[in-house]
Fold this protein.
Amino acid sequence: MDALAPQAMPAALPMVLHDITVVNTKKQAQVKVMGVPPEEFGIERGARTIKDCNYCFHESSRPVGDLIGLGYDAEQVKGIASSSPAPTTEDLSRDSVDEERPEADSLNEMARLVRVTEHYIRMDYEGNGKPCIYRVTTAGEGGMILKREGKEDIERVDEYPFAAASPVPQSHRFFGRSVADLVMDIQRIKTALIRGLLDNVYQHNNARTEIAESHAGPNTLDDLLVSRPGGIVRTKTPGGLNPLQVQDITGSVYPALQYMDATREMRTGVSNQSQGIDANALQNQSATAVAQVFSASQMRTKLIARILAEGVRDMFALLHATIRKHGQQAETVRLRNTWVEVNPRNWKTRNDMTINVGLGSGGKAQQFAQAMAIANFQKELLMGGKTNLVDDKGLYNTGAELLKIMGHKNPDKFLNDPSAKDPQTGQPLHPPVPPPPDPALIKVQADAQMKDKELQMRGQEIVANAEIAKQADERKAQIESVQAQADIATQNRKTEAEMALAQQKFELERELKLLDFQLKKQMHDEEMQMRREQHQQAMAAGAFKVVAGAEAHGQKMEQMRSKPESGE
């Protein structure tokens, strides 16, 4: 073959098409708050607060797979023995269905639990004379320091990542008291009283019997030891059995129980009045007196909520610090019914923020009364012409606050925000309506124009009296036209106001009729439910009477059979 001859081109491969799916995964960081059980947290002795302590720790059991996923050395983690801590009192009381019962090591190595402790220590680890807070992670019974990327997991942190609160704080102590600690002794006393009361009732129902030995036959003691309704006691002499009288202690136990309940209410602040189940609170008392008693009974509960709010404030401070440190991208969130872009990267120098805890301003009724007082005050200012003190934004804020108290979170469904603007044009979405022209001003302007024209007429009076008369007629026609237009505008505004008032009256009457219908329907449903319950109770009472009659007939027949036997 000639080397210079052209070679044949290979055949073109057929075109192959493929369907592909592109998946774009975007990871979004999220701050989480985890509740720590009291038995898993520890702090140095003598500590007053977490911020001022020198050492605290968090001990928990975690799966091997989670630790490896966090980047710890896999071989080291797998070599740690499984954790088998002894159950504490809190564990036993919290575990009601044996869900925390220790089990044998699972065959799944990644699910095996090991004890992990995070130590937070304030110390001079670097030796520069400046103590800082360090986190040291250990695992196992021996406290082995875990390694991550070949280095021991000893990391410097800015602050302790814990927030604590106690409902009943103790002076100069970190650990306070719970509500259960306040009433534990009361519960034990009530248990002893109720047990004594029940024992007394048992002795009344089944009292002991005195019998002389001379009256006792060979079967008397056996018959007395068997206590059953309608039982027979055989004796030598009739009338030889004397039941021992048991003193009734219910008259002294019930006042003691009421006293312990009153003591519990004083310690905890939880009473029948605060729960709305005290029927005596509504007898011969006005609504204001009942509201005052109800508010006073809730003071203790509100105090506990206010104390716990301090711990919530520390928790939000930790959340804010975490977002400041690790927030890297902007997020769009809904804030006050408006989509706002929040960029944590702009918070790096945000050191002047304070977290305020709400002090409370009374109940719903009191808040509504206060808001209505503000609305009435604004109304009086507007009627007095003080428009410089109250504007559309102030009226909108008052209406929004009233709707918020009523339970409506979005006031824009009922009111138009005067400060809302079009995002495209920047113009207000709800501009104020221009006020209508004042008829008095129109009349003044007409009078001024008439006086000007009269001056002109006097200047031209010498030239042509006829022209002056003609101009006077024209001015009179213009004045009448202006007055007619003013009268028409006034009548139109009056008609519009009457129509708006009639529409409001119609809406109010419709709502009243709807509420009346709902109330009657609810009362009818409750009456039908009460009738059904009474019918069921009557049926149950009839069944009980039939059973009781059958039992009485059986006892009578047994007595009739026993009489011939005794006669023999």
About this structure: The mean pLDDT is 81. The CA atoms of residues 29 and 240 lie 89 Å apart. The chain has 13 helices and twelve strands.
